[in-house]
Amino acid sequence: MNDLKQRIEGHIEALSQFTATPGQGTTRLTYSKEDLQAREYLKEKMKEYGLQVSEDGLGNIFGKLEGTLKDAPSVLIGSHFDSVPNGGSYDGPAGVVAGLEVAALFAKNKIKPKYPLEVIALIEEEGSRFGGGLMGSRGIVGSLGEEEFINLTDKGGITTVEAMAEIGLDPSLPKKRDPKTMKAYLELHIEQGPILEEKGIPIGMVEAIVGLAQLEITVEGKAGHAGTTPMDRRSDALVVAAKMIAQLPEIALSEGEGSVITTGRLHVFPNGANVIPNKVVFTVDLRSGREEHILNMIGQVQQLVESFHAFGIKNSVQQQLYMPPKAMNQEIIALLSEKCSELNIPFCSINSGAGHDAMVFSDVTDVGMLFVPSKDGLSHCPEEWSDSQDLANAVQILYEAAKKLTEA
Ligand code: HGY
Ligand code: MN
Ligand code: MN
Ligand code: MN
Predict the structure, then answer these.
(1) Shortest CA distance to 390 belongs to which of 12, 109, 123?
(2) Would 373 disulfide with which of 30, 156, 196, 294, CB 3.0-4.6 Å?
(3) Residue range 26-52: mean pLDDT, rounded
């Protein structure tokens, strides 16, 4: 097991070097130089572990161990390898590395499966560059259409297609994958919360993943001179946006049942200290374990925005992502639980407050998800850390489950 722990630590350490903000966490935006570095590393390891490497028209990476059955559907194991700005080293890569090391155990034990095993490294789960998120998995299942994909641009106006070309990817390759080619999808992820650590339990068996929506609000006012424009003649977009944002927490609190709402990104235009802002664009990320709360909160945010159609202020709401809550597959949960028990690794049921690619794949195949504890419950920050012993436990569980799933 030590050897496995060391390999896991080596992968996480290596991948953490591929960041645009060295010393200030992991910033690895999709189709960036850092993406390319991580991509080369992952493809290299897939080849080393005897996998056939391919990339699709979105830049998702696949490492396939062929099965003995012809044209049989694959058991996929993986996660995403992009990050939030100044994020941690484990959110995403922990799951990709787990897939790699399950494949390494297949190779080491000379297992020739009936059904293929595929390690998958997904792009743009966070949505940090092109907005929304879950882009790699949504492209594979077809809920992100070709039109929508090629028209996505980053904040600098660069399109997905242009950005892909910059790192030598081919957007004309197939994107949507026939669901009949997928037998199951397993994902290991860090919990990103405090529950497992507080309970002292090394494995979380994910039952369900929270539903979420991401909105982008644009508030338009009128630019003006900060010194010469009287207070009663201003259409100050930032003052209006600030009043809107200040009212958001109450929307989640009044929905209750763990509903949450967050404004994580805000851009002010023209962003000059002595200029009255004429435009503000900010995000609203809202989540709940129950779909009706999400729909209620979207409605209330829209009403709030409309209520500010005051003097000279124009506002709009764009929905960038919508995912209802998703339950994991009970048979997969039973299989993963059985393997935990056989390996004497304690586990408990847990729901995910974070969104994951597993929720997208749950529409087209059987999906299961494991969590490992996050130190101090921290994630989406440089302090994010998980114990490689916990990760190694999870690899063992996934390996035993993958052996079963690729045999029958
Ligand atoms: O935002 C999320 O829940 C995930 O980290 N993309
Ligand atoms: Mn993640
Ligand atoms: Mn994340
Ligand atoms: Mn996720």
Answers:
(1) 12
(2) 196
(3) 98
**Residue range 222-232: mean pLDDT, rounded:** 97
DSSP state letters, 285-304 = EEEESSHHHHHHHHHHHHHH
Which among 305, 226, 318, 230 has a CA at the least distance from the CA of 270?
Answer: 226
Rounded distance from Cα 192 to ligand 2 centre (Å): 9
How many whole angstroms from 235 Cα to the centroid of ligand 3? 36
Q: What is the DSSP code string of 211-255?
A: EEEEEEEEEE---EETTTS-GGG---HHHHHHHHHHHHHHHHHHH
Q: In the predicted model, what is the mean pLDDT of residues 251-278?
A: 97
Q: What angle do CA 29, 34, 36 make, to 5 degrees?
A: 105
Alpha carbon 201 to its chain's center:
24
- Stretch 128-132: mean pLDDT, rounded? 94
Tell me, what's the pLDDT at 311? 67
Total-model pTM: 0.94
Our answer on whether the CB atom of 136 is closer than 6 Å to any ligand 1 atom is no
pLDDT of residue 1: 63
Ligand 1, residue 354: give the atom nearest the CA.
3
Q: How far is CA 235 from CA 128, 223, 265, 307, 386, in A?
A: 30, 8, 22, 15, 48
Note the ipTM here.
0.89
